[in-house]
Design brief:
mainly alpha, 13 helices, globular
């Protein structure tokens, strides 16, 4: 899905320009109307096809179907945003979408100084979108294998910040705009888009389920709705801020707005990562390795109980020949490991 979104970022300006040029052969009014009518028709056809193609809840696996819940069990967007890490992911998506929309009205006036041909301008606009489309699946694979997507969100914010320092370039750099440096900045920004968008969605999905949201289609829809809302808000704020700030100053100074947002995301991510590292429980190891994935320490209590029950007593020196270390049966071991956590704590 993220790859298709990146392809849309590439083909959108090209298709719009081609339709605009094609409409000029008919009339001036039709020239402005043709792009909107064509793309609106494509969206309508896509919605119509989705209604008949998308699966209904009845054909989903039972554990993925939305369950009827009481009013006390229902959880919505407010409860989702109360999870701190989900709020971080939402703000990261917003800030990254601002960086994406910022270039929509401001990049073309910024590159007029190079007097480029039409296809060269299209190639420049396609750099960050193309990079995003290519690298998004790779970042998705990395997110599936990492236990802390917040680190990728932090890397994405750093990359977007570095990219914008080169696109302008930033006013604290002692040189003017250079074409190849600007293209390098757009490439780095595309990498940052992939890291931020994909990792933030993965983080929000994981943390919402860890906080008690069900692993079903209702949670998927809720997190996806949050992602799209923040993305749309950022795409609204980005062009608006770009138009206002570039009118008041120039691109180099206006881009500081995007850099400031990314610095804020970096600071919040660093705080979250430091706090999460401090809250990692100490691992208990006695002749075996046991990983504790939660903060309750129940796994450690289970292991302590296991060893307390099955560690053989000291062998009497008078019966060295007769004594044999007892070994627990599989059933007995399973009974111990399957005990209720509250009972384990009570018995210990």
């Amino acid at each position: 899905m993220e790859m298709c979104s990146g392809l849309g970022l590439i083909l959108g300006p090209l298709l719009g320009s081609l339709l605009y040029e094609a409409g000029s052969f008919v009339s001036t009014d039709f020239q402005f109307l043709l792009p909107y009518v064509t793309l609106g028709g494509i969206l309508f056809i896509g919605a119509f096809m989705a209604y008949f193609i998308m699966p209904t809840p009845e054909i989903l696996p039972p554990h993925r179907r939305p369950q009827k819940k009481s009013d006390d069990e229902k959880r919505g967007m407010t409860q989702l945003l109360k999870i701190p890490s989900v709020s971080l992911a939402a703000f990261s998506i917003f800030a990254t979408a601002v960086s994406l929309g910022f270039n929509a009205p401001s990049l073309e006036p910024h590159i007029r100084q190079f007097h480029l041909e039409y296809m060269s301008k299209f190639a420049i606009f396609a750099i960050n979108g193309g990079t995003y489309a290519i690298t998004a699946p790779i970042i998705g694979k990395i997110c599936d294998r990492t236990s802390n997507p917040k680190a990728l969100v932090l890397i994405g914010a750093i990359l977007v910040f570095c990219g914008y320092t080169l696109i302008g370039p930033a006013p604290f750099f002692p040189f003017q705009t250079i074409l190849w440096v600007m293209c390098l900045g757009l490439f780095i920004q595309g990498l940052g888009l992939s890291c931020s968008f994909v990792a933030a969605f993965t983080q929000a999905m994981r943390d919402s389920m860890e906080a008690g949201f069900p692993d079903d289609i209702s949670t998927y829809g809720l997190v996806s709705g949050l992602w799209m809302s923040m993305f749309a808000l950022g795409n609204c704020v980005g062009p608006s801020a770009a138009g206002l700030l570039t009118e008041l100053s120039n691109y180099r100074l206006a881009s500081l707005f995007v850099m400031a947002l990314q610095c804020l995301v970096m600071g919040i991510c660093i705080i979250f990562i430091i706090k999460s590292n401090r809250n990692v429980p100490t691992e208990i190891n006695k002749d075996s390795e046991l990983e504790i994935h939660d903060g309750s320490g129940v796994a450690a209590l289970k292991q302590a109980k296991f060893y307390s029950e099955f560690t053989p007593a000291p062998i009497d020196s008078n019966e060295n020949k007769k004594s044999v270390q007892s070994k627990p049966t599989i059933a007995k071991v399973n009974n111990v490991l399957d005990d209720d956590d509250d009972e384990i704590i009570h018995r210990l």
